[in-house]
Write a structure and sequence with these properties.
Length: 309
Amino acid sequence: MSRNFLIVDPVEGIETLKALASAVRVSILKLLHDQGPQNVNAIAAALSMPQSSVSANVQVLEDAGLIRTETLRAKKGNQKVCHTLFDEVLVMFKKDPASAGADTIEVAMPLGLYTSCEVSAPCGLCSSDGIIGLLDVPDTFLDPGRMSAGLIWFTRGYVEYQFPNNIKLMNGQLNAVEFSMELSSEVPGTAADWPSDITFSINQTEVGTWTSPGDYGDQRGVYTPSWWKLKGSQYGMLKSMRVTGDGSYIDGRKMSPLSLKDLDLGAHRSIRLRIAVKDDARHPGGLNIFGRGFGNYDQDIVMRLITHR
């Protein structure tokens, strides 16, 4: 089962910590986590609290981004239904790479700025404002409007991104190249149990394959716009793929023996990342890539070059 995490830097996330510094608000979060979405009246009854007090605390949690609410029709008027967004909240100080004897150059690549693609339908792109081009028409992936894409999906094929190779700008020896992105499988509608083999390549050298467990739609993504239908893919899993001197890893777990030496990045002018669902994949379950304005993380595809001095 997919779990949603929130990492809070106490330096930057003081308002989130203030929202958590209340036994009442923690009780509300626990109730929503254990029992699922609840309206304000149901929360008040479960916690034996006045409805007005629950409403005030719900507003604090919503403002802090810890829950989301939606207004639905009830038998009499409307009701405000609350949804929890995270299973776990982790409080962590951001690491300073320099203090650890490392230098990092980070490049964020907008989702629609791929330099080559070949996809099969069902497929599509959309921005935070609406659908781009035509759904299920692969040629739409060449539409100039793709530059604003926040979500792309396809059944088979690939998209490839060309990053600048900034290794020569760094001091020291390259220790790792890392890519971070939010991914899920793709099925018409959604299905938590829908595995898909997603393969990563760098400069046309296959790095390894990660199997996405499913396509998630149990709740709206934290940043997914309200116009996007609830039966569509809502969020993915934030994955970190790293190549080091002794192999390739996905979220710290070894994916393949391919190493930096095999990539020989110093011989290339650019670093080209390909994300694919291959025709011969054992689990050909499609692919969603979530960018800014969609999913749970609101980030582009990020590349980091890391050296140790």
